[in-house]
User: What shape does this take?
Amino acid sequence: MVDSLNDPLEAGEVPRAFVVLKTPATPKELMAFVAQRVAPYKKIRQLDFIDAIPKSASGKILRRVLRDRQIV
Assistant: This one.
């Protein structure tokens, strides 16, 4: 899932991805994979690895839970 992260130094907001890994991968590999397929302004600037995407009882992604996560 991709969300935005406030960044006053760059463009105001930059893309941040939340990733659940099925197989081992490094942040560099994932960012390079995405960079080859999207426009430059859509390139992911930060990756957060999580155990599972939080979902509501109806199956919708709880974006506010992800957005409120502390940045490490």
Observations:
- The mean pLDDT is 85.
